[in-house]
Amino acid sequence: MREILRDSGLTARALARQAGWDETKCSRLQGGRTPPSDADIRTWCTICGVPDEIPNLIAASRNAADAYVEWRRVQRSQRRLQELGLELYENNTLYRFYSSNFMLWPLQTPNYMRAVMTYFNEFHEAGNTDIEEGVKMRVARRQYLADGRRTCVMVMEESVLRNRIFSNDIMGEQLRYILTVMRQSNISLGIIPWMASRSQHASETFHMYGDVNVSIELTTAIVTITQPREIDLYVKAFNELRASAVHGRAARTLITNAIEALH
């Protein structure tokens, strides 16, 4: 909001006068001491001549408290971690997921889930004791894709199939399970081969729910994006990544080759 005011050429006093506010309100809003209401944002952007910024600023303001959540804050309880995003699963009918490191959750076996949770528990030194409960909750999450009312479109790098983070037994079971999940009619899986010609580079793992939310997994935190213009860029990135992926028989061949490579 401070940058918008600066770019408009107006002073805080001029903006306050046009808005019918006390001048100190502008100071509080610019300094972050007072969270802006939706009405405040609409008034601010309209007076400054940038009404197109209203949806982005409102989304950013509403999401400010939960936009950046450190893993260490939620790793101590797998129940709390698995509860993150449940509302997004329930309220959206289209999921679009991309991964460059781990198997995406709709594809995971219980043993793979357990290995992932244990890995991050140790990495973040979280001292978590409810991993088994977390596994049960993540398995239960599959209900959102079981009735066919929702569509899940996934893209993974081939390296995800080849990573040897966990034992051969866990990876072998996991890879074979993917071949089964791929038969589900409302699930689409594309795999980007190592040697694929591509217009979009491998990026951070991200999950998209409808056109309203993008969740990005970093090493240290979960970042949530709700600004429409940023979401549009992730939609564009996802579509370009998917265009580089192979599907169907070609994807199954990559999975089968990864299974054979374990031996």
Protein model, in words:
- The chain is an alpha/beta fold and 263 residues long.
- The protein has 2 domains: 2-65, 434 Repressor (Amino-terminal Domain) (Orthogonal Bundle); 67-261, Endonuclease, Chain A (2-Layer Sandwich), CATH 3.30.870.
- Helix content is 52%, strand content 14%.
- The protein is built from 15 helices and 7 strands.
- The protein has helices spanning 2-8, 12-19, 23-31, 38-47, 54-63, 71-74, 78-83, 86-91, 110-123, 131-140, 143-146, 158-162, 168-181, 228-243, 248-261; strands at 68-70, 94-99, 151-157, 187-192, 205-209, 213-217, 221-225.
- Strands 1-7-6-5-2-3-4 form a 7-stranded mixed sheet.
- A hairpin with a 3-residue loop joins strand 5 (205-209) and strand 6.
- The longest helix has 16 residues, at 228-243.
- The protein is elongated, with a radius of gyration of 22 Å.
- The mean pLDDT is 87.
Features of the shown structure:
about 260 residues, alpha/beta, 434 Repressor (Amino-terminal Domain), Endonuclease, Chain A, seven-stranded mixed sheet, 7 strands, about 50% helix, elongated
